[in-house]
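Extended Data, panel c. Modelled sequence:
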Amino acid sequence: MNLVPIGRFSKMTRLSVRALRLYDESGLLRPAHIDPSSGYRYYSLGQANRAEAVRILRSVDMPLDEILAVLEADNPDLVHKQLVVHRERLAERLATQERMLAYLESLIQRKEGIMPYDVQIIEEEAQLVAATRVRTNLRRIGDDIGAGFGTLMQGLMGAGVPASGAPLIVYHDMIDEETEGDIEICVPVTATISDGGAVYTRELEGGTMVSTVHHGPYQEIAPAYHTLTGWVSEHGHELAGPPRETYLNDPQVVAPEELLTRVDFPIEPQPD
Protein backbone atom coordinates (compact mmCIF):
# COMPACT_ATOMS: atom_id res chain seq x y z
CA MET A 1 0.00 0.00 0.00
CA ASN A 2 1.42 3.39 -1.03
CA LEU A 3 1.04 5.69 1.97
CA VAL A 4 1.63 9.45 2.07
CA PRO A 5 1.67 11.74 5.12
CA ILE A 6 -1.22 14.11 5.77
CA GLY A 7 0.69 17.17 4.53
CA ARG A 8 1.36 15.66 1.13
CA PHE A 9 -2.15 14.23 0.89
CA SER A 10 -3.45 17.72 1.67
CA LYS A 11 -1.59 19.17 -1.31
CA MET A 12 -2.70 16.32 -3.56
CA THR A 13 -6.38 16.71 -2.73
CA ARG A 14 -6.58 20.50 -2.14
CA LEU A 15 -8.01 19.83 1.31
CA SER A 16 -6.42 21.62 4.24
CA VAL A 17 -4.82 19.62 7.02
CA ARG A 18 -7.42 21.07 9.36
CA ALA A 19 -10.22 19.85 7.06
CA LEU A 20 -8.68 16.38 6.82
CA ARG A 21 -8.57 16.14 10.60
CA LEU A 22 -12.22 17.16 10.78
CA TYR A 23 -13.19 14.58 8.15
CA ASP A 24 -11.29 11.94 10.10
CA GLU A 25 -13.20 12.79 13.29
CA SER A 26 -16.55 12.79 11.48
CA GLY A 27 -15.87 9.47 9.73
CA LEU A 28 -15.90 10.97 6.24
CA LEU A 29 -12.28 10.26 5.40
CA ARG A 30 -10.35 8.07 7.84
CA PRO A 31 -6.57 7.81 7.39
CA ALA A 32 -5.36 4.49 6.05
CA HIS A 33 -2.87 4.33 8.90
CA ILE A 34 -2.10 6.25 12.11
CA ASP A 35 1.34 5.82 13.60
CA PRO A 36 0.69 4.56 17.17
CA SER A 37 3.78 6.27 18.61
CA SER A 38 3.59 9.67 16.90
CA GLY A 39 -0.10 9.90 16.01
CA TYR A 40 0.81 10.98 12.46
CA ARG A 41 -1.89 10.32 9.87
CA TYR A 42 -1.08 8.57 6.58
CA TYR A 43 -3.36 8.17 3.57
CA SER A 44 -3.32 5.79 0.65
CA LEU A 45 -3.24 7.11 -2.90
CA GLY A 46 -6.47 5.24 -3.52
CA GLN A 47 -8.31 7.56 -1.11
CA ALA A 48 -7.87 10.53 -3.45
CA ASN A 49 -11.18 9.84 -5.24
CA ARG A 50 -13.14 9.84 -1.99
CA ALA A 51 -11.32 13.01 -0.93
CA GLU A 52 -12.32 14.70 -4.20
CA ALA A 53 -15.96 13.70 -3.68
CA VAL A 54 -15.89 15.18 -0.18
CA ARG A 55 -14.25 18.38 -1.46
CA ILE A 56 -16.85 18.88 -4.19
CA LEU A 57 -19.83 18.15 -1.93
CA ARG A 58 -18.51 20.52 0.74
CA SER A 59 -17.99 23.19 -1.93
CA VAL A 60 -21.75 23.13 -2.56
CA ASP A 61 -22.48 23.26 1.19
CA MET A 62 -23.77 19.74 1.69
CA PRO A 63 -23.81 18.96 5.45
CA LEU A 64 -21.23 16.46 6.69
CA ASP A 65 -23.77 13.87 7.79
CA GLU A 66 -25.41 13.91 4.36
CA ILE A 67 -22.04 13.57 2.62
CA LEU A 68 -21.34 10.51 4.77
CA ALA A 69 -24.70 9.03 3.79
CA VAL A 70 -23.92 9.58 0.10
CA LEU A 71 -20.46 8.06 0.32
CA GLU A 72 -21.58 5.04 2.34
CA ALA A 73 -24.68 4.28 0.27
CA ASP A 74 -24.45 1.01 -1.65
CA ASN A 75 -27.51 1.77 -3.79
CA PRO A 76 -27.16 4.22 -6.70
CA ASP A 77 -30.81 5.21 -6.31
CA LEU A 78 -30.17 6.35 -2.73
CA VAL A 79 -27.19 8.41 -3.87
CA HIS A 80 -29.28 10.01 -6.61
CA LYS A 81 -32.13 10.76 -4.20
CA GLN A 82 -29.77 12.44 -1.72
CA LEU A 83 -28.20 14.56 -4.46
CA VAL A 84 -31.63 15.60 -5.76
CA VAL A 85 -32.66 16.71 -2.26
CA HIS A 86 -29.55 18.85 -1.98
CA ARG A 87 -29.98 20.23 -5.50
CA GLU A 88 -33.49 21.37 -4.59
CA ARG A 89 -32.13 22.96 -1.40
CA LEU A 90 -29.55 24.89 -3.43
CA ALA A 91 -32.19 26.00 -5.94
CA GLU A 92 -34.39 27.30 -3.12
CA ARG A 93 -31.42 29.12 -1.59
CA LEU A 94 -30.57 30.69 -4.96
CA ALA A 95 -34.17 31.86 -5.41
CA THR A 96 -34.07 33.41 -1.94
CA GLN A 97 -30.80 35.19 -2.67
CA GLU A 98 -32.14 36.53 -5.97
CA ARG A 99 -35.21 37.90 -4.16
CA MET A 100 -32.95 39.51 -1.56
CA LEU A 101 -30.82 41.17 -4.25
CA ALA A 102 -33.94 42.55 -5.92
CA TYR A 103 -35.18 43.76 -2.53
CA LEU A 104 -31.81 45.39 -1.80
CA GLU A 105 -31.86 47.19 -5.14
CA SER A 106 -35.34 48.58 -4.50
CA LEU A 107 -34.32 49.63 -0.99
CA ILE A 108 -31.23 51.48 -2.24
CA GLN A 109 -33.20 53.23 -4.96
CA ARG A 110 -35.72 54.60 -2.47
CA LYS A 111 -34.51 58.04 -1.47
CA GLU A 112 -36.44 58.01 1.81
CA GLY A 113 -34.70 54.73 2.74
CA ILE A 114 -37.71 53.01 4.33
CA MET A 115 -40.69 51.53 2.59
CA PRO A 116 -44.04 53.04 3.59
CA TYR A 117 -46.09 51.17 6.19
CA ASP A 118 -49.40 51.98 7.81
CA VAL A 119 -48.72 52.29 11.57
CA GLN A 120 -51.51 51.82 14.10
CA ILE A 121 -51.85 51.72 17.88
CA ILE A 122 -53.88 48.70 18.98
CA GLU A 123 -54.97 47.23 22.29
CA GLU A 124 -54.10 43.54 22.48
CA GLU A 125 -55.81 41.21 24.96
CA ALA A 126 -53.69 38.77 26.96
CA GLN A 127 -54.07 35.28 25.50
CA LEU A 128 -53.23 31.72 26.41
CA VAL A 129 -50.58 30.27 24.12
CA ALA A 130 -48.70 27.01 23.74
CA ALA A 131 -45.03 27.76 23.20
CA THR A 132 -41.54 26.41 22.83
CA ARG A 133 -38.34 28.41 23.28
CA VAL A 134 -35.46 28.23 20.80
CA ARG A 135 -31.98 29.74 20.84
CA THR A 136 -30.80 30.74 17.38
CA ASN A 137 -28.93 33.25 15.24
CA LEU A 138 -29.65 34.86 11.90
CA ARG A 139 -27.73 32.29 9.88
CA ARG A 140 -29.85 29.33 10.98
CA ILE A 141 -33.04 31.03 12.12
CA GLY A 142 -35.15 29.71 9.24
CA ASP A 143 -34.25 26.10 10.00
CA ASP A 144 -34.66 26.63 13.75
CA ILE A 145 -38.10 28.19 13.33
CA GLY A 146 -39.20 25.29 11.13
CA ALA A 147 -37.95 22.75 13.68
CA GLY A 148 -39.52 24.75 16.52
CA PHE A 149 -42.93 24.82 14.87
CA GLY A 150 -42.59 21.06 14.31
CA THR A 151 -41.90 20.54 18.02
CA LEU A 152 -44.82 22.78 18.93
CA MET A 153 -47.29 20.98 16.67
CA GLN A 154 -46.17 17.56 17.93
CA GLY A 155 -46.68 18.74 21.51
CA LEU A 156 -50.19 19.98 20.71
CA MET A 157 -51.12 16.74 18.95
CA GLY A 158 -49.76 14.65 21.81
CA ALA A 159 -51.81 16.64 24.30
CA GLY A 160 -54.91 16.67 22.12
CA VAL A 161 -55.03 20.48 22.25
CA PRO A 162 -55.90 22.26 18.97
CA ALA A 163 -54.53 25.63 17.91
CA SER A 164 -57.10 28.41 18.12
CA GLY A 165 -55.42 31.26 16.25
CA ALA A 166 -52.60 32.42 14.02
CA PRO A 167 -49.05 31.36 15.00
CA LEU A 168 -46.61 33.97 16.24
CA ILE A 169 -43.04 34.41 17.41
CA VAL A 170 -41.81 36.60 20.27
CA TYR A 171 -38.24 37.85 19.73
CA HIS A 172 -36.82 38.10 23.25
CA ASP A 173 -33.27 39.06 22.21
CA MET A 174 -31.48 41.00 19.50
CA ILE A 175 -30.25 38.45 16.95
CA ASP A 176 -27.78 38.87 14.10
CA GLU A 177 -25.39 36.70 12.04
CA GLU A 178 -23.00 36.13 14.93
CA THR A 179 -25.11 36.81 18.04
CA GLU A 180 -27.43 34.15 19.38
CA GLY A 181 -30.65 34.92 21.18
CA ASP A 182 -33.94 33.43 22.34
CA ILE A 183 -37.15 33.34 20.37
CA GLU A 184 -40.46 31.93 21.59
CA ILE A 185 -42.59 30.14 19.02
CA CYS A 186 -46.25 30.31 20.02
CA VAL A 187 -49.75 29.43 18.94
CA PRO A 188 -52.99 30.47 20.71
CA VAL A 189 -54.85 27.65 22.49
CA THR A 190 -57.92 27.29 24.70
CA ALA A 191 -56.59 24.68 27.14
CA THR A 192 -53.38 24.19 29.10
CA ILE A 193 -50.83 21.43 28.47
CA SER A 194 -49.79 19.64 31.65
CA ASP A 195 -46.72 17.78 30.41
CA GLY A 196 -45.66 18.68 26.89
CA GLY A 197 -41.91 18.32 27.35
CA ALA A 198 -40.37 21.24 25.49
CA VAL A 199 -43.87 22.61 24.85
CA TYR A 200 -45.62 24.57 27.60
CA THR A 201 -48.56 26.93 27.99
CA ARG A 202 -48.51 30.44 29.39
CA GLU A 203 -50.40 33.69 29.21
CA LEU A 204 -48.93 35.97 26.56
CA GLU A 205 -49.04 39.53 27.78
CA GLY A 206 -51.45 41.98 26.21
CA GLY A 207 -51.39 45.74 26.33
CA THR A 208 -50.88 48.71 24.04
CA MET A 209 -49.03 47.85 20.84
CA VAL A 210 -47.71 49.80 17.91
CA SER A 211 -48.45 47.65 14.90
CA THR A 212 -48.03 47.32 11.14
CA VAL A 213 -48.47 44.61 8.52
CA HIS A 214 -45.64 43.54 6.25
CA HIS A 215 -46.69 42.31 2.82
CA GLY A 216 -44.07 40.07 1.20
CA PRO A 217 -41.27 37.58 1.97
CA TYR A 218 -40.19 37.12 5.56
CA GLN A 219 -36.58 37.97 4.62
CA GLU A 220 -37.67 41.50 3.67
CA ILE A 221 -39.38 42.38 6.94
CA ALA A 222 -36.64 44.61 8.40
CA PRO A 223 -38.12 47.94 7.13
CA ALA A 224 -41.30 47.19 9.10
CA TYR A 225 -39.19 47.16 12.27
CA HIS A 226 -37.38 50.34 11.23
CA THR A 227 -40.72 52.04 10.61
CA LEU A 228 -42.21 51.04 13.97
CA THR A 229 -39.19 51.96 16.10
CA GLY A 230 -38.82 55.24 14.22
CA TRP A 231 -42.51 56.03 14.71
CA VAL A 232 -42.30 55.27 18.44
CA SER A 233 -39.29 57.57 18.82
CA GLU A 234 -40.85 60.32 16.74
CA HIS A 235 -44.03 60.32 18.83
CA GLY A 236 -42.23 60.23 22.18
CA HIS A 237 -43.43 56.79 23.31
CA GLU A 238 -41.35 54.09 25.02
CA LEU A 239 -40.85 50.49 23.93
CA ALA A 240 -42.14 48.21 26.69
CA GLY A 241 -41.28 44.67 25.66
CA PRO A 242 -40.00 42.35 22.96
CA PRO A 243 -41.48 42.55 19.46
CA ARG A 244 -43.64 39.78 18.07
CA GLU A 245 -44.55 38.63 14.59
CA THR A 246 -47.96 37.09 13.84
CA TYR A 247 -48.23 35.09 10.62
CA LEU A 248 -51.58 35.88 9.03
CA ASN A 249 -51.43 33.40 6.15
CA ASP A 250 -49.74 30.11 5.35
CA PRO A 251 -46.44 30.00 3.40
CA GLN A 252 -47.46 26.52 2.21
CA VAL A 253 -50.49 28.02 0.49
CA VAL A 254 -49.52 31.49 -0.78
CA ALA A 255 -46.51 32.75 -2.74
CA PRO A 256 -43.75 34.60 -0.82
CA GLU A 257 -44.91 37.89 -2.36
CA GLU A 258 -48.38 37.41 -0.83
CA LEU A 259 -47.30 36.60 2.74
CA LEU A 260 -48.82 38.82 5.44
CA THR A 261 -46.97 39.29 8.75
CA ARG A 262 -48.18 41.59 11.50
CA VAL A 263 -45.35 43.12 13.54
CA ASP A 264 -46.19 44.44 17.02
CA PHE A 265 -44.10 46.28 19.62
CA PRO A 266 -45.50 46.68 23.15
CA ILE A 267 -45.25 50.35 24.14
CA GLU A 268 -45.86 52.69 27.04
CA PRO A 269 -47.73 55.59 25.46
CA GLN A 270 -46.60 59.00 26.64
CA PRO A 271 -49.05 61.87 27.01
CA ASP A 272 -48.97 64.49 24.27
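The chain has four domains: 3-72, 75-109, 117-126+205-272, 128-202. This feature is highlighted in the accompanying rendering.
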